[in-house]
Amino acid sequence: MSIEHKHIDEVFEYDGSQINPSWAFNQFGIYGSSIITWIGPVNITPDNLKDFADVGLEIKSNYMVNFICEFFDCQPANMRIAYLRQRLLVMIFREILFEKGVSSKREGDDIFVNGRKLSISIASASLSSMKIHFAFNLEDKGTPDDVETIGILDIVDEDNNQVFNKENLVDLINEIANRFILEIETIEKDISKTNLL
């Protein structure tokens, strides 16, 4: 399976509608499986909530790094596979944080640093595709008052230096996307070379 990653420089809001099927094709003309990344505010409207547990909650942030992943390789689309891939993406993100010296904790599909929530995520499936939205805060601003949050730019090392900054942020985004794509592609290769008796 081929997966195209496209990073969008334009700043725009994630309101939950981007999790709908074929958004990448409708907005950017991208056929097939894809990962679209961009930086922008998040404010998920009630009519676009996918998780029953989130009903009545505010899901918002002034600026987040957003990932929208869509896969067409499984027909009909499989919700379980969508969630397994979502967890894989989240764990790759946590692996990269660890390699940069950042200690974190994973609870399901959420990542916490110093006990403060860094990321959000949801998986979904339609008749035609499987989708994932994964996002992490840039700063602890504009998030719900009842949630202790942290941004990727708020994280500092032992010398109080930023681990991530605006200069290396796109590199981080590309590394996450590329590792995720590589994992899925190598799984496909492993399947094709396995001798089934």
Task: Note down, in words, how this protein is organized.
The protein is α+β, with helices and mostly antiparallel strands. It has a single domain (4-192), classed as Bira Bifunctional Protein, Domain 2 (BirA Bifunctional Protein, domain 2), CATH 3.30.930. The chain has three helices and eight strands; from the N terminus they run βαββαβββββα. The protein has helices at 23-28, 79-99, 169-192; strands at residues 4-8, 34-43, 60-71, 105-107, 110-113, 116-117, 119-125, 130-137. The chain has a five-stranded mixed β-sheet with strand order 1-2-3-8-7, covered by helices on one side. Helix 2 crosses helix 3. The two termini are 24 Å apart.
SSE blueprint:
Blueprint: E1 4-8, H1 23-28, E2 34-43, E3 60-71, H2 79-99, E4 105-107, E5 110-113, E6 116-117, E7 119-125, E8 130-137, H3 169-192
Please tell me the total number of domains: 1
Low-confidence stretches: 51-56
Label the overall shape. Answer: globular
The average pLDDT score comes to 92
* Gyration radius over CA: 17 Å
Largest sheet: 5 strands, mixed
Give the name of the CATH superfamily.
Bira Bifunctional Protein, Domain 2
Percent strand? 25-35%
Class inferred from helices and paired strands: alpha+beta
Q: Specify the helix fraction band.
A: 25-40%
Extended strand count: 8
* SS element count, helices: 3
CATH topology group: BirA Bifunctional Protein, domain 2
